[in-house]
Write a structure and sequence with these properties.
Helix content is about 80%, strand content about 0%. The protein is mainly α.
Length: about 70
Amino acid sequence: MAGYYDALLAALPLSLVGLAGGLSVAGVDPTVALTVGGVAATALTAHALFVNDPTSADRRAGYESAD
């Protein structure tokens, strides 16, 4: 079963290459297209790190640390 972080690993290159490629094909300057794709990939990474951080799943599930 694919989890959130597995989907995120697939979404990062897809957002960068897919968005940049789509905008470039649509006639947008390649520099602007890559910047927009990079911002989208950065937003996904920031969401994974700061909004849905990996430790929040452990806290919700009731896991205790070994410390």
